[in-house]
Design goal:
- By secondary structure, the chain is mainly beta.
- The protein has a single domain, classed as Porin (Beta Barrel).
- It is about 10% helix and about 65% strand.
- It is built from one helix and ten strands, in the order H-E-E-E-E-E-E-E-E-E-E.
- The chain has an eight-stranded antiparallel barrel.
- A hairpin with a 4-residue loop joins strand 2 and strand 3.
- The N and C termini lie far apart (about 40 Å).
Length: about 160
């Protein structure tokens, strides 16, 4: 009897986990406080994925490019709605009167809805993190940035 309960539990858990991955990969566009950019999401298991991003941010007299990678965990809520959380790193550069190079360690929190009738997903995420900047090798600046949020539209396959 004990073996039967264990077998049924394993079967139930495997079916639950299999539903956590609504698709295998996605490619799309995003925009918001983090700028505008492209994103590629690749599932590596039933409930975890890598999310690669390249974002451009424009301001008064400057342009920034930041390339990031996060490792995230996917938590199904209901239907196609998913919650995700993870950690990431990034490197970037800001081009203005002085070039500034930066590195970042940050979190990733968000929601995504994958449509069942069409191969698209919409998402919103927030990436608070700790950013280090170096300009001309002369000074370094460390800072907490919590104004990095994006809304995205992805093609899923």
């Amino acid at each position: 009897m004990k073996k039967l309960i264990i077998a049924i539990s394993v079967l139930f858990l495997s079916l639950t986990v299999a539903q956590a991955q609504p698709y295998k990969a996605a490619f799309g566009l995003e925009g918001g406080f983090g700028g505008v950019g492209v994103t590629y999401k690749q599932f590596t298991g039933p409930s975890n994925f890598f999310d690669y991003k390249a974002n451009l941010r424009f301001g008064k007299g400057y342009t920034s490019l930041m390339v990031t990678d996060t490792f995230d965990w996917n938590v199904p809520i209901t239907g196609g709605l998913q919650f995700f959380y993870g950690l990431g790193v990034g490197v970037g550069a800001t081009f203005a009167s002085t070039s500034v190079f930066s590195a970042a360690v940050f979190g990733n929190l968000g929601f995504e809805y994958a449509f069942s009738a069409v191969p698209f997903a919409i998402s919103i995420d927030w990436n608070p993190g700790y950013y280090m900047s170096i300009a001309n090798g002369l000074y370094g600046a460390f800072g907490w940035d919590h104004y990095v949020a994006n809304v995205g539209l992805k093609y899923t396959f």
